[in-house]
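User: Round two. Same drill as before: sequence, then structure, for each protein.

Assistant: Same drill it is. First protein:
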Amino acid sequence: MNNMVFVLCIISIVLAANTVQQYLKLRHKKEANSTVADETQAQLDELEERIRVLERIVTENKFDLRQEINKL
Protein backbone atom coordinates (compact mmCIF):
# COMPACT_ATOMS: atom_id res chain seq x y z
CA MET A 1 0.00 0.00 0.00
CA ASN A 2 2.91 2.35 0.68
CA ASN A 3 4.02 2.03 -2.92
CA MET A 4 0.58 3.09 -4.16
CA VAL A 5 0.59 6.19 -1.93
CA PHE A 6 4.07 7.05 -3.17
CA VAL A 7 2.97 6.76 -6.83
CA LEU A 8 -0.14 8.88 -6.17
CA CYS A 9 1.99 11.56 -4.49
CA ILE A 10 4.36 11.70 -7.46
CA ILE A 11 1.45 11.92 -9.91
CA SER A 12 -0.13 14.71 -7.82
CA ILE A 13 3.12 16.67 -7.72
CA VAL A 14 3.61 16.35 -11.48
CA LEU A 15 0.03 17.44 -12.22
CA ALA A 16 0.29 20.39 -9.82
CA ALA A 17 3.59 21.50 -11.35
CA ASN A 18 2.11 21.26 -14.85
CA THR A 19 -0.91 23.35 -13.82
CA VAL A 20 1.28 26.03 -12.26
CA GLN A 21 3.48 26.10 -15.36
CA GLN A 22 0.48 26.56 -17.67
CA TYR A 23 -0.90 29.31 -15.41
CA LEU A 24 2.39 31.20 -15.47
CA LYS A 25 2.64 30.94 -19.27
CA LEU A 26 -0.92 32.24 -19.65
CA ARG A 27 -0.26 35.13 -17.27
CA HIS A 28 2.91 36.06 -19.16
CA LYS A 29 1.02 35.97 -22.47
CA LYS A 30 -1.70 38.25 -21.06
CA GLU A 31 0.93 40.74 -19.84
CA ALA A 32 2.55 40.76 -23.29
CA ASN A 33 -0.83 41.32 -24.95
CA SER A 34 -1.57 44.11 -22.50
CA THR A 35 1.69 45.84 -23.40
CA VAL A 36 0.91 45.58 -27.12
CA ALA A 37 -2.61 46.90 -26.50
CA ASP A 38 -1.23 49.88 -24.56
CA GLU A 39 1.20 50.71 -27.37
CA THR A 40 -1.56 50.39 -29.96
CA GLN A 41 -3.85 52.65 -27.94
CA ALA A 42 -1.08 55.26 -27.63
CA GLN A 43 -0.56 55.24 -31.40
CA LEU A 44 -4.31 55.52 -31.96
CA ASP A 45 -4.52 58.50 -29.60
CA GLU A 46 -1.64 60.19 -31.43
CA LEU A 47 -3.29 59.66 -34.81
CA GLU A 48 -6.61 61.00 -33.53
CA GLU A 49 -4.88 64.16 -32.33
CA ARG A 50 -3.21 64.61 -35.71
CA ILE A 51 -6.58 64.22 -37.45
CA ARG A 52 -8.09 66.84 -35.14
CA VAL A 53 -5.30 69.26 -36.05
CA LEU A 54 -5.77 68.60 -39.76
CA GLU A 55 -9.54 69.08 -39.49
CA ARG A 56 -9.01 72.34 -37.65
CA ILE A 57 -6.61 73.58 -40.34
CA VAL A 58 -8.93 72.60 -43.18
CA THR A 59 -12.05 74.07 -41.59
CA GLU A 60 -10.47 77.45 -40.79
CA ASN A 61 -12.04 80.33 -42.70
CA LYS A 62 -8.66 81.69 -43.80
CA PHE A 63 -7.39 78.39 -45.10
CA ASP A 64 -5.69 78.69 -48.44
CA LEU A 65 -4.05 75.52 -49.68
CA ARG A 66 -1.77 77.24 -52.17
CA GLN A 67 -0.33 79.54 -49.53
CA GLU A 68 0.32 76.65 -47.21
CA ILE A 69 2.06 74.67 -49.95
CA ASN A 70 4.15 77.65 -50.97
CA LYS A 71 5.27 78.16 -47.37
CA LEU A 72 6.74 74.69 -47.41
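Second protein:
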Amino acid sequence: MKELIVILGAGESGTGAALLAQAKGWDVFVSDFGTIAPKFKDQLNQANIPFEEGKHSEEVILNAALAIKSPGIPYKVPIIKALQAKGIAIIDELEFAYRYSKAKFICITGSNGKTTTTLLTYHLLKEAGLNVALGGNIGQSMALQVINETADWYVLEVSSFQLDGWDTFKPNISAITNITPDHLDRYEYKFENYVASKFRIVQKQDEKDYFITFSDADVIEQELAKGTVKPTTALIGHQENTNLGAYSKGEEAIVFNYLDGGAMLQHIELPLANSPIQGAHNRQNIMVAVLAALRAGVPAESIEGNLSTFINAPHRLEKVATINGVTYVNDSKATNVDSVKYALGTYSEPLVWIAGGVDKGNDYSLIESLVLEKVKVLIILGTYKEPLLNAFSGKLPLILEAADMQEAVSLAQANSQSGDLVLLSPACASFDLFKNYEHRGNVFRELVLSEKQKSE
Protein backbone atom coordinates (compact mmCIF):
# COMPACT_ATOMS: atom_id res chain seq x y z
CA MET A 1 0.00 0.00 0.00
CA LYS A 2 1.31 3.44 -0.97
CA GLU A 3 1.98 6.01 1.75
CA LEU A 4 0.07 9.28 1.55
CA ILE A 5 1.92 12.56 1.05
CA VAL A 6 -0.03 15.79 1.40
CA ILE A 7 1.03 18.96 -0.42
CA LEU A 8 -0.22 22.18 1.18
CA GLY A 9 -0.29 24.96 -1.40
CA ALA A 10 -0.57 24.42 -5.14
CA GLY A 11 1.72 27.06 -6.59
CA GLU A 12 4.97 26.47 -8.49
CA SER A 13 6.68 24.58 -5.67
CA GLY A 14 3.63 22.65 -4.48
CA THR A 15 2.61 21.42 -7.91
CA GLY A 16 6.20 20.43 -8.69
CA ALA A 17 6.41 18.52 -5.41
CA ALA A 18 3.13 16.74 -6.16
CA LEU A 19 4.34 15.61 -9.58
CA LEU A 20 7.67 14.38 -8.17
CA ALA A 21 5.90 12.54 -5.34
CA GLN A 22 3.66 10.78 -7.83
CA ALA A 23 6.66 9.85 -9.99
CA LYS A 24 8.34 8.32 -6.94
CA GLY A 25 5.38 6.16 -6.00
CA TRP A 26 3.60 8.17 -3.32
CA ASP A 27 -0.16 8.47 -2.97
CA VAL A 28 -0.60 12.24 -3.40
CA PHE A 29 -3.22 14.74 -2.23
CA VAL A 30 -2.94 18.51 -2.82
CA SER A 31 -4.79 21.02 -0.63
CA ASP A 32 -4.84 24.79 -1.12
CA PHE A 33 -6.81 27.07 1.19
CA GLY A 34 -6.92 29.69 -1.55
CA THR A 35 -7.68 29.46 -5.27
CA ILE A 36 -5.42 27.35 -7.48
CA ALA A 37 -4.22 29.05 -10.66
CA PRO A 38 -5.54 27.47 -13.89
CA LYS A 39 -2.01 26.56 -15.02
CA PHE A 40 -1.43 24.40 -11.94
CA LYS A 41 -4.94 22.91 -12.00
CA ASP A 42 -4.26 21.75 -15.54
CA GLN A 43 -0.98 20.10 -14.48
CA LEU A 44 -2.65 18.30 -11.56
CA ASN A 45 -5.62 17.17 -13.67
CA GLN A 46 -3.36 15.86 -16.43
CA ALA A 47 -1.50 13.79 -13.84
CA ASN A 48 -4.78 12.61 -12.21
CA ILE A 49 -3.63 13.97 -8.85
CA PRO A 50 -6.58 14.73 -6.52
CA PHE A 51 -6.72 18.25 -5.14
CA GLU A 52 -8.98 20.67 -3.31
CA GLU A 53 -9.09 24.45 -3.07
CA GLY A 54 -10.72 26.91 -0.69
CA LYS A 55 -10.35 24.55 2.28
CA HIS A 56 -8.16 22.04 4.11
CA SER A 57 -9.89 18.69 4.72
CA GLU A 58 -8.41 17.48 7.99
CA GLU A 59 -9.92 14.00 7.65
CA VAL A 60 -7.61 13.45 4.66
CA ILE A 61 -4.63 15.64 5.55
CA LEU A 62 -4.09 14.21 9.02
CA ASN A 63 -3.67 10.70 7.58
CA ALA A 64 -0.48 11.75 5.78
CA ALA A 65 2.86 10.05 6.33
CA LEU A 66 4.57 13.28 5.24
CA ALA A 67 3.46 16.85 4.50
CA ILE A 68 5.11 19.38 2.19
CA LYS A 69 4.23 22.98 3.02
CA SER A 70 4.32 25.98 0.71
CA PRO A 71 6.85 28.53 2.01
CA GLY A 72 4.08 31.11 2.14
CA ILE A 73 2.07 29.21 4.79
CA PRO A 74 3.01 30.29 8.35
CA TYR A 75 3.53 27.62 11.00
CA LYS A 76 0.87 29.26 13.16
CA VAL A 77 -2.09 28.35 10.91
CA PRO A 78 -4.48 25.70 12.31
CA ILE A 79 -3.76 22.93 9.77
CA ILE A 80 -0.01 23.13 10.44
CA LYS A 81 -0.57 23.02 14.19
CA ALA A 82 -2.84 19.99 13.70
CA LEU A 83 -0.15 18.19 11.69
CA GLN A 84 2.44 18.99 14.32
CA ALA A 85 0.15 17.74 17.08
CA LYS A 86 -0.08 14.37 15.30
CA GLY A 87 3.69 14.20 14.87
CA ILE A 88 3.52 14.32 11.06
CA ALA A 89 6.76 15.66 9.57
CA ILE A 90 6.43 18.91 7.61
CA ILE A 91 9.13 19.73 5.07
CA ASP A 92 9.76 22.08 2.15
CA GLU A 93 9.68 21.25 -1.56
CA LEU A 94 13.46 21.75 -1.80
CA GLU A 95 14.08 19.30 1.02
CA PHE A 96 11.81 16.75 -0.67
CA ALA A 97 13.45 17.17 -4.08
CA TYR A 98 16.93 16.95 -2.55
CA ARG A 99 16.15 13.46 -1.26
CA TYR A 100 15.74 12.23 -4.86
CA SER A 101 18.55 14.19 -6.53
CA LYS A 102 22.07 13.09 -7.43
CA ALA A 103 23.29 16.59 -8.32
CA LYS A 104 25.50 19.06 -6.45
CA PHE A 105 24.07 22.22 -4.95
CA ILE A 106 24.91 25.89 -4.60
CA CYS A 107 22.36 27.43 -2.21
CA ILE A 108 22.16 31.18 -1.67
CA THR A 109 20.17 33.06 0.95
CA GLY A 110 20.22 36.54 2.47
CA SER A 111 17.89 39.39 3.34
CA ASN A 112 18.88 41.22 0.16
CA GLY A 113 20.70 40.41 -3.04
CA LYS A 114 19.97 36.69 -3.18
CA THR A 115 18.07 36.79 -6.48
CA THR A 116 20.76 38.81 -8.28
CA THR A 117 23.49 36.63 -6.76
CA THR A 118 21.71 33.41 -7.69
CA LEU A 119 21.12 34.53 -11.27
CA LEU A 120 24.73 35.68 -11.64
CA THR A 121 26.11 32.43 -10.19
CA TYR A 122 23.92 30.43 -12.57
CA HIS A 123 25.05 32.61 -15.48
CA LEU A 124 28.75 32.12 -14.67
CA LEU A 125 28.38 28.33 -14.44
CA LYS A 126 26.21 28.05 -17.53
CA GLU A 127 28.43 30.24 -19.71
CA ALA A 128 31.47 28.23 -18.60
CA GLY A 129 29.82 25.10 -19.97
CA LEU A 130 28.73 23.40 -16.74
CA ASN A 131 25.51 21.37 -16.80
CA VAL A 132 23.51 23.57 -14.42
CA ALA A 133 19.87 24.23 -13.51
CA LEU A 134 18.21 27.14 -11.69
CA GLY A 135 15.58 26.81 -8.97
CA GLY A 136 14.41 27.45 -5.45
CA ASN A 137 12.70 30.77 -4.93
CA ILE A 138 13.19 31.62 -8.59
CA GLY A 139 12.52 29.91 -11.90
CA GLN A 140 11.05 26.43 -12.28
CA SER A 141 10.29 24.13 -9.36
CA MET A 142 13.34 22.08 -8.42
CA ALA A 143 11.09 19.10 -7.71
CA LEU A 144 9.73 19.22 -11.23
CA GLN A 145 13.27 19.26 -12.63
CA VAL A 146 14.33 16.29 -10.49
CA ILE A 147 11.68 14.01 -12.08
CA ASN A 148 13.84 13.67 -15.21
CA GLU A 149 17.03 15.03 -13.75
CA THR A 150 19.71 16.06 -16.23
CA ALA A 151 21.64 18.69 -14.23
CA ASP A 152 24.98 18.11 -12.53
CA TRP A 153 24.56 21.32 -10.51
CA TYR A 154 21.62 23.29 -9.16
CA VAL A 155 21.92 26.94 -8.18
CA LEU A 156 19.10 27.69 -5.75
CA GLU A 157 17.81 30.93 -4.27
CA VAL A 158 16.55 29.96 -0.82
CA SER A 159 14.33 32.05 1.46
CA SER A 160 14.21 31.76 5.22
CA PHE A 161 10.74 30.24 4.87
CA GLN A 162 12.16 27.46 2.70
CA LEU A 163 15.09 26.92 5.07
CA ASP A 164 12.61 26.39 7.91
CA GLY A 165 11.47 23.24 6.10
CA TRP A 166 14.97 21.74 5.68
CA ASP A 167 16.02 18.61 7.54
CA THR A 168 18.68 16.66 5.60
CA PHE A 169 19.60 19.18 2.89
CA LYS A 170 23.39 19.51 2.61
CA PRO A 171 24.62 22.08 0.06
CA ASN A 172 28.06 21.62 -1.45
CA ILE A 173 28.36 25.40 -1.52
CA SER A 174 26.22 27.75 0.57
CA ALA A 175 26.12 31.51 0.93
CA ILE A 176 24.50 34.15 3.12
CA THR A 177 24.77 37.50 1.34
CA ASN A 178 23.73 39.51 4.42
CA ILE A 179 21.23 39.46 7.29
CA THR A 180 19.13 42.48 8.20
CA PRO A 181 15.69 42.61 9.85
CA ASP A 182 13.00 41.26 7.53
CA HIS A 183 9.89 39.10 7.78
CA LEU A 184 9.94 39.59 11.55
CA ASP A 185 6.17 39.09 11.58
CA ARG A 186 6.89 35.42 10.81
CA TYR A 187 9.53 35.13 13.55
CA GLU A 188 7.68 36.43 16.60
CA TYR A 189 9.26 39.85 15.92
CA LYS A 190 12.56 38.45 17.22
CA PHE A 191 15.57 39.15 15.02
CA GLU A 192 17.51 36.29 16.58
CA ASN A 193 14.86 33.84 15.34
CA TYR A 194 15.24 35.16 11.80
CA VAL A 195 19.06 34.92 12.04
CA ALA A 196 18.79 31.30 13.23
CA SER A 197 16.56 30.54 10.25
CA LYS A 198 19.14 31.91 7.81
CA PHE A 199 21.94 29.88 9.37
CA ARG A 200 19.98 26.67 8.81
CA ILE A 201 21.65 26.75 5.39
CA VAL A 202 24.89 25.42 6.97
CA GLN A 203 23.35 23.06 9.52
CA LYS A 204 24.24 19.84 7.65
CA GLN A 205 27.43 21.03 5.97
CA ASP A 206 30.83 19.70 7.05
CA GLU A 207 34.49 20.53 6.47
CA LYS A 208 34.36 19.24 2.88
CA ASP A 209 31.73 21.83 1.99
CA TYR A 210 32.10 25.57 1.36
CA PHE A 211 30.34 28.56 2.93
CA ILE A 212 30.53 32.17 1.72
CA THR A 213 29.31 35.06 3.83
CA PHE A 214 29.62 38.79 4.47
CA SER A 215 32.15 39.49 7.23
CA ASP A 216 31.39 43.19 7.73
CA ALA A 217 28.20 42.58 9.71
CA ASP A 218 28.04 42.22 13.48
CA VAL A 219 25.25 39.67 13.45
CA ILE A 220 27.18 37.35 11.10
CA GLU A 221 30.42 37.80 13.02
CA GLN A 222 28.58 36.86 16.22
CA GLU A 223 27.23 33.66 14.66
CA LEU A 224 30.64 32.68 13.28
CA ALA A 225 32.23 33.35 16.67
CA LYS A 226 30.08 30.61 18.21
CA GLY A 227 32.26 28.06 16.39
CA THR A 228 29.36 25.93 15.20
CA VAL A 229 29.83 26.60 11.46
CA LYS A 230 31.70 23.56 10.11
CA PRO A 231 32.23 24.13 6.36
CA THR A 232 35.31 25.87 4.97
CA THR A 233 34.35 29.54 5.23
CA ALA A 234 35.19 32.29 2.74
CA LEU A 235 34.60 35.84 3.97
CA ILE A 236 33.61 38.74 1.74
CA GLY A 237 33.87 42.38 2.78
CA HIS A 238 35.14 45.85 2.04
CA GLN A 239 38.40 45.73 4.00
CA GLU A 240 41.59 44.39 2.44
CA ASN A 241 42.55 40.99 3.82
CA THR A 242 44.51 37.89 2.91
CA ASN A 243 41.91 35.42 4.17
CA LEU A 244 39.99 33.02 2.00
CA GLY A 245 37.30 35.14 0.33
CA ALA A 246 37.11 38.48 -1.44
CA TYR A 247 37.24 42.24 -0.80
CA SER A 248 36.63 45.46 -2.69
CA LYS A 249 39.61 47.33 -4.06
CA GLY A 250 38.07 50.78 -4.14
CA GLU A 251 35.38 51.22 -6.76
CA GLU A 252 37.35 49.62 -9.58
CA ALA A 253 37.95 45.99 -8.74
CA ILE A 254 37.48 43.03 -6.42
CA VAL A 255 40.29 40.83 -5.20
CA PHE A 256 39.58 37.12 -4.78
CA ASN A 257 41.53 34.64 -2.68
CA TYR A 258 40.26 31.16 -3.36
CA LEU A 259 41.10 27.50 -3.10
CA ASP A 260 42.11 25.81 -6.33
CA GLY A 261 41.87 22.05 -5.99
CA GLY A 262 41.33 22.38 -2.25
CA ALA A 263 44.95 23.14 -1.45
CA MET A 264 46.61 26.19 -2.97
CA LEU A 265 45.37 29.72 -2.25
CA GLN A 266 44.95 31.45 -5.61
CA HIS A 267 44.67 35.20 -6.12
CA ILE A 268 42.88 37.07 -8.91
CA GLU A 269 41.80 40.68 -9.38
CA LEU A 270 38.54 41.34 -11.23
CA PRO A 271 38.05 44.82 -12.75
CA LEU A 272 34.50 46.18 -12.54
CA ALA A 273 34.53 48.77 -15.33
CA ASN A 274 32.37 46.59 -17.59
CA SER A 275 30.14 45.17 -14.86
CA PRO A 276 26.46 45.51 -15.79
CA ILE A 277 25.43 45.74 -12.12
CA GLN A 278 26.63 48.70 -10.12
CA GLY A 279 26.64 49.87 -6.50
CA ALA A 280 28.29 48.66 -3.29
CA HIS A 281 25.59 46.06 -2.70
CA ASN A 282 26.19 44.54 -6.12
CA ARG A 283 29.92 44.31 -5.43
CA GLN A 284 28.95 42.04 -2.53
CA ASN A 285 26.71 40.02 -4.84
CA ILE A 286 29.53 39.67 -7.37
CA MET A 287 31.92 38.47 -4.65
CA VAL A 288 29.56 35.69 -3.60
CA ALA A 289 28.76 34.60 -7.15
CA VAL A 290 32.37 34.54 -8.33
CA LEU A 291 33.61 32.63 -5.27
CA ALA A 292 30.81 30.09 -5.69
CA ALA A 293 31.61 29.71 -9.39
CA LEU A 294 35.33 29.27 -8.73
CA ARG A 295 34.59 26.65 -6.09
CA ALA A 296 32.31 24.82 -8.54
CA GLY A 297 35.18 24.57 -11.01
CA VAL A 298 34.60 27.54 -13.30
CA PRO A 299 37.99 28.63 -14.75
CA ALA A 300 39.14 32.01 -13.47
CA GLU A 301 39.89 33.20 -17.01
CA SER A 302 36.20 32.89 -18.02
CA ILE A 303 34.83 35.00 -15.17
CA GLU A 304 35.47 38.55 -16.38
CA GLY A 305 34.06 38.09 -19.88
CA ASN A 306 30.97 36.27 -18.66
CA LEU A 307 30.31 38.85 -15.94
CA SER A 308 30.04 41.55 -18.60
CA THR A 309 27.22 39.67 -20.41
CA PHE A 310 25.01 39.22 -17.34
CA ILE A 311 21.48 40.65 -17.46
CA ASN A 312 19.85 41.11 -14.06
CA ALA A 313 16.24 40.26 -13.24
CA PRO A 314 13.64 43.05 -13.50
CA HIS A 315 12.41 45.09 -10.52
CA ARG A 316 15.94 45.50 -9.11
CA LEU A 317 17.13 49.07 -9.76
CA GLU A 318 15.70 48.65 -13.26
CA LYS A 319 15.92 51.84 -15.31
CA VAL A 320 12.53 52.13 -17.02
CA ALA A 321 12.69 55.40 -18.96
CA THR A 322 13.75 59.03 -18.98
CA ILE A 323 10.93 61.54 -19.52
CA ASN A 324 11.72 65.26 -19.92
CA GLY A 325 15.07 64.74 -18.21
CA VAL A 326 13.59 62.77 -15.27
CA THR A 327 14.79 59.17 -14.86
CA TYR A 328 12.34 56.53 -13.57
CA VAL A 329 13.72 53.46 -11.75
CA ASN A 330 11.76 50.35 -10.79
CA ASP A 331 13.11 48.82 -7.57
CA SER A 332 9.88 47.08 -6.59
CA LYS A 333 11.84 44.11 -5.22
CA ALA A 334 13.01 46.36 -2.36
CA THR A 335 10.59 45.07 0.27
CA ASN A 336 12.62 46.02 3.34
CA VAL A 337 14.59 48.97 4.69
CA ASP A 338 18.00 47.52 3.92
CA SER A 339 17.15 47.14 0.23
CA VAL A 340 16.06 50.78 0.13
CA LYS A 341 19.34 51.77 1.79
CA TYR A 342 21.22 50.19 -1.12
CA ALA A 343 19.00 51.96 -3.63
CA LEU A 344 19.34 55.39 -2.01
CA GLY A 345 23.10 54.97 -1.89
CA THR A 346 23.34 54.13 -5.58
CA TYR A 347 22.13 57.49 -6.95
CA SER A 348 23.46 61.05 -6.72
CA GLU A 349 20.44 62.73 -8.37
CA PRO A 350 17.71 64.45 -6.27
CA LEU A 351 15.16 61.73 -5.55
CA VAL A 352 11.39 61.51 -5.71
CA TRP A 353 10.90 58.40 -3.61
CA ILE A 354 7.76 56.26 -3.98
CA ALA A 355 7.43 53.97 -0.95
CA GLY A 356 4.85 52.13 1.10
CA GLY A 357 2.71 49.02 1.21
CA VAL A 358 2.39 46.43 3.95
CA ASP A 359 4.98 47.34 6.59
CA LYS A 360 6.66 44.26 8.12
CA GLY A 361 8.07 45.97 11.20
CA ASN A 362 10.49 48.39 9.48
CA ASP A 363 12.85 50.61 11.45
CA TYR A 364 13.10 53.70 9.24
CA SER A 365 15.67 55.33 11.54
CA LEU A 366 18.22 53.07 9.80
CA ILE A 367 17.85 55.09 6.60
CA GLU A 368 16.79 58.47 7.98
CA SER A 369 20.08 60.23 7.31
CA LEU A 370 20.20 58.95 3.71
CA VAL A 371 16.57 59.91 3.11
CA LEU A 372 17.09 63.43 4.45
CA GLU A 373 20.22 63.81 2.32
CA LYS A 374 18.83 62.46 -0.95
CA VAL A 375 15.02 62.71 -1.05
CA LYS A 376 13.22 65.90 -2.09
CA VAL A 377 9.74 64.35 -2.29
CA LEU A 378 8.30 61.26 -0.58
CA ILE A 379 5.19 59.76 -2.13
CA ILE A 380 3.54 57.22 0.19
CA LEU A 381 1.68 54.54 -1.72
CA GLY A 382 -0.89 52.13 -0.35
CA THR A 383 -3.23 51.70 2.60
CA TYR A 384 -0.72 51.49 5.47
CA LYS A 385 0.69 55.02 5.49
CA GLU A 386 1.24 55.63 9.20
CA PRO A 387 4.73 54.08 9.64
CA LEU A 388 6.27 56.23 6.89
CA LEU A 389 4.33 59.31 7.97
CA ASN A 390 5.45 58.84 11.57
CA ALA A 391 9.07 58.40 10.46
CA PHE A 392 9.38 61.39 8.10
CA SER A 393 6.63 63.95 8.77
CA GLY A 394 8.15 67.38 9.35
CA LYS A 395 11.58 66.19 8.19
CA LEU A 396 11.23 66.28 4.39
CA PRO A 397 10.33 69.22 2.12
CA LEU A 398 7.26 67.47 0.72
CA ILE A 399 5.31 64.31 1.59
CA LEU A 400 2.37 63.26 -0.59
CA GLU A 401 -0.06 60.36 -0.39
CA ALA A 402 -1.22 58.22 -3.32
CA ALA A 403 -4.13 55.79 -3.30
CA ASP A 404 -2.76 53.77 -6.21
CA MET A 405 0.19 53.55 -8.58
CA GLN A 406 -1.47 55.75 -11.21
CA GLU A 407 -1.74 58.58 -8.70
CA ALA A 408 1.82 57.94 -7.47
CA VAL A 409 3.29 58.26 -10.97
CA SER A 410 1.20 61.36 -11.69
CA LEU A 411 2.36 62.99 -8.45
CA ALA A 412 5.96 62.07 -9.26
CA GLN A 413 5.68 63.71 -12.67
CA ALA A 414 4.12 66.86 -11.26
CA ASN A 415 6.74 67.24 -8.52
CA SER A 416 9.95 66.44 -10.40
CA GLN A 417 12.16 68.39 -12.78
CA SER A 418 14.92 67.62 -15.24
CA GLY A 419 17.85 66.02 -13.45
CA ASP A 420 15.69 64.31 -10.82
CA LEU A 421 15.23 60.58 -10.41
CA VAL A 422 11.90 58.94 -9.51
CA LEU A 423 12.63 55.82 -7.47
CA LEU A 424 10.02 53.16 -6.74
CA SER A 425 11.69 51.44 -3.77
CA PRO A 426 8.81 50.58 -1.45
CA ALA A 427 10.51 49.10 1.69
CA CYS A 428 7.26 47.16 2.15
CA ALA A 429 5.38 44.12 0.89
CA SER A 430 2.91 44.70 -1.92
CA PHE A 431 -0.12 42.74 -0.84
CA ASP A 432 -2.40 45.67 -0.04
CA LEU A 433 -2.72 46.77 -3.68
CA PHE A 434 -0.90 44.16 -5.77
CA LYS A 435 -0.52 40.40 -6.17
CA ASN A 436 3.22 40.55 -5.49
CA TYR A 437 6.25 42.79 -6.02
CA GLU A 438 6.44 41.75 -9.71
CA HIS A 439 2.88 42.93 -10.29
CA ARG A 440 3.67 46.22 -8.52
CA GLY A 441 6.79 46.76 -10.62
CA ASN A 442 5.02 45.83 -13.85
CA VAL A 443 2.22 48.34 -13.18
CA PHE A 444 4.80 51.05 -12.46
CA ARG A 445 6.74 50.22 -15.64
CA GLU A 446 3.62 50.21 -17.82
CA LEU A 447 2.45 53.56 -16.46
CA VAL A 448 5.87 55.17 -16.93
CA LEU A 449 6.24 53.82 -20.49
CA SER A 450 2.74 55.07 -21.27
CA GLU A 451 3.72 58.55 -20.06
CA LYS A 452 6.91 58.39 -22.12
CA GLN A 453 4.89 57.55 -25.22
CA LYS A 454 2.64 60.58 -24.60
CA SER A 455 5.67 62.86 -24.27
CA GLU A 456 7.19 61.85 -27.61
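The chain has three domains: 4-91, 95-307, 318-455.

User: Perfect.
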